[in-house]
Amino acid sequence: MEFMLKPVTMGMKWLLWHDLLKRAKKRLEDAKKKISVGKISGVVGTYAQVPPEIERHVCDSLGLTPDTLSTQVISRTGMRVTSLPWECWVCD
C-alpha cells in the first residue's frame, strides 16, 4: 500500500494559524462573559450594609453581572475554562 504525501504550503500554515487565533479569541470572549461577575452584598452576602439596588447599579456601571447568591467570595462554579489555546497546538 502506497501513501501519497501532499506538500504543506506556507499559505496552509497561515490559514491554520489564523483559524487557531479565531478559536482562541472566541474562547477568551466566552471566558470573559463567565467571569464578569460582581458582588458588594456584604461580608456574608446578606445586604446588611448595601441594598441590592446599589449592587446592581455598581455592577452595571462596571459591565459586570451581579452574583445571584454569594457568601464571602463569589462562587467559581462555571468559571473554569477547559480548552486553552496552547493545547490546540499539540492536538492540531
Overall description:
By secondary structure, this protein is mostly helical. The protein has a domain at 10-70. 48% of the residues lie in helices and 4% in strands. It has helices spanning 10-35, 52-62, 85-91, and strands spanning 37-38, 65-66. Helix 2 (52-62) links the parallel strand 1 and strand 2 (65-66). The two termini are 26 Å apart.
Keywords:
disordered C terminus, 92 residues, mainly alpha, 2 strands, 3 helices
Concise synopsis of the structure shown:
Helices cover 48% and strands 4% of the residues. The chain is mostly helical and 92 residues long.
Could you give the topology of this structure?
Blueprint: H1 10-35, E1 37-38, H2 52-62, E2 65-66, H3 85-91
Report helical residue fraction.
Answer: 40-55%
Q: Poorly predicted ranges (pLDDT <50, ≥5 residues)? A: 87-92
Q: Please report the total strand number as a whole number.
A: 2
Radius of gyration: 22 Å
Biggest sheet architecture? 2 strands, parallel
Overall pLDDT level: 82
